[in-house]
Design brief:
This protein is α+β, with helices and mostly antiparallel strands and about 325 residues long. Helix content is about 60%, strand content about 5%. It has 3 domains: about 100 residues; about 70 residues, Histidine-containing Protein, Chain: A, CATH 3.30.1340.30; about 120 residues, Uncharacterized conserved protein DUF2267 (Globin-like), CATH 1.10.490.110. It is elongated and about 85 Å long.
C-alpha cells in the first residue's frame, strides 16, 4: 500500500506542477518584457515533469517488496520533492510577473523569518556567520559579528528593504578578521580579555545562560552606551580593551528613539533588543554588568555619573535604584 500512496502523492504533485506550468507559461507569454531565462525555466520544468510521469508509471509494474520496487519508491520520493520545489519556483515567477509584493502587515515571527530568508544569500556571499534577527513592533533588531563596517551597512540596507520592516536597530559589530570565525574557514580562537571575562561572568552570576551571556553583555553595554553623550562615551571606550570596546557602541538606528531616563526604561530597551536576557533576570543582569563596567573604568566613574539622570546615576554608582 505504501507504494500506491507514494505514487498517488507523486501524481498529485505532478498535476499541481503541470497546472502551475500552464499558468506560469501564460503569464510569461503575456509579459512582452519576459526574459529568455523565464522561458527556459518553464521549459526545463516541463521536461522534469515528463520525466516524473514516466518514472511514476514504471513503478506501477514493479512487484511490491522487490529491490527494484524500493529503488523506484526512493526515486518517486525524490522526484516529488523536486516537483514541489519547481512548483514553488513557478509560483514565484507568477508572483513577480504580476508585480505583487509580500504584505507588510504580518506578525513579528513571520517578519523575522522573511528577513532571515532575505539575508541567507547575502551572509553566504559575505562569508559571515548567521545574523541573529529579532522583531519588535515591526522594528528589526540585528545581532552578530561582521568583517567590516561595509558588511554591516550592506546587511542593514537589505533588512530595511524587506516588506514590513518599519525600522532597523543594528547591534552588529566588527569582530571578524580575514578568515576569522567565517563559515568557509572554520572557527578561529582568540584569547578573551580579562575585562570581557569579568563582564560575562557578571551576567552569568546574575542568571544569564553561559552560552548566551556575551550576546546579553553586548545588548546591555550598547544600550547603556547609547545613553551617554558622545564625548563621555568615547572617554570610557578609550579605557576598554578592543574586544569590549567593540561591544560598547550604541546600536545604529534609522531614527533616534526617545532618551532613556530611568532604570525601567533602560531594562525594557535591553529586553526588547535581545531574546538572551529573560525579563525576570533583566534588571539583575543589567545592574551586574553596568557595575562591572564601572569597576573597569574607575578614572571615568565620577564623570559618567555626572551626566546621568538620578536613577541611572544610582545604578552606575552602586546605590539603590528603587
Amino acid at each position: 500500500m505504501k507504494i500506491w500512496r507514494r505514487l498517488v502523492a507523486s501524481l498529485v504533485g505532478i498535476a499541481n506542477a503541470l497546472g502551475l506550468r500552464t499558468l506560469a507559461e501564460r503569464d510569461v507569454n503575456a509579459d512582452h518584457g519576459g526574459t529568455a531565462a523565464r522561458r527556459c525555466l518553464v521549459r526545463a520544468s516541463g521536461k522534469r515533469v515528463v520525466g516524473g510521469v514516466v518514472m511514476a508509471g514504471g513503478a506501477v509494474v514493479l512487484r511490491p517488496g522487490s529491490r527494484a520496487n524500493k529503488v523506484v519508491c526512493h526515486q518517486i520520493e525524490a522526484a516529488s520533492k523536486r516537483l514541489r520545489y519547481l512548483g514553488g519556483q513557478l509560483q514565484g515567477v507568477r508572483y513577480r510577473l504580476r508585480g505583487r509584493h509580500p504584505t507588510p502587515d504580518v506578525i513579528g515571527n513571520v517578519l523575522a523569518d522573511r528577513i532571515r530568508s532575505e539575508l541567507g544569500g547575502l551572509e553566504k556571499s559575505l562569508d559571515l556567520p548567521h545574523v541573529h534577527v529579532m522583531v519588535h513592533d515591526h522594528v528589526a533588531m540585528l545581532h552578530g559579528e561582521v568583517g567590516s563596517q561595509a558588511d554591516a551597512d550592506q546587511i542593514e540596507r537589505a533588512v530595511e528593504a524587506v516588506s514590513g520592516v518599519a525600522g532597523v536597530e543594528s547591534y552588529l559589530h566588527v569582530g571578524l578578521g580575514r578568515g576569522d570565525t567565517r563559515p568557509s574557514a572554520g572557527r578561529a580562537v582568540h584569547p578573551t580579555s580579562a575585562a570581557l571575562h569579568r563582564l560575562v561572568d557578571a551576567a552569568v552570576e546574575a542568571g544569564i545562560a553561559p552560552d548566551t551571556a556575551q550576546t546579553a553583555v553586548r545588548a546591555i553595554l550598547a544600550t547603556f552606551a547609547d545613553r551617554l553623550p558622545v564625548t563621555e562615551r568615547d572617554k570610557v571606550a578609550a579605557h576598554l580593551p578592543a574586544d569590549v570596546r567593540t561591544l560598547f557602541s550604541p546600536p545604529r538606528r534609522a531614527r533616534r528613539p526617545a532618551q532613556v531616563r530611568d532604570v525601567h526604561e533602560l531594562v525594557a530597551g535591553i529586553v526588547a533588543a535581545t531574546g538572551e536576557v529573560p525579563a525576570d533576570k533583566a534588571e539583575q543582569a543589567t545592574t551586574a554588568v553596568v557595575r562591572a563596567l564601572r569597576d573597569l573604568v574607575p578614572d571615568e566613574a565620577r564623570e559618567v555619573g555626572a551626566v546621568l539622570p538620578s536613577e541611572l546615576r544610582a545604578l552606575w554608582q552602586g546605590g539603590d535604584t528603587a
